[in-house]
Amino acid sequence: MTRTADKPQVLLEHHLRVLKLPTFLAEYEKVARESAADGIDHPRYLLRLAELELIERERRLVDRRIRAARFPATKSLDTFDFMSIPALNKMLVLELARSEYVIRNENVIALGPSGTGKTHVALGLGLAACQKGFSVLFTSTASLVNRLMEARDGRQLSRLQAQLASVKLLIVDEFGYVPLSPTGAELLFEVFSQRYERGSTIVTSNLPFEEWTGVLGSERLTGALLDRLTHHVHILEMNGESYRLKHARNRRHKAAKATAGQSDPDTGEITSP
Question: Fewer CB near the terminus (10 Å): N or C of the chain?
Answer without folding.
Answer: N
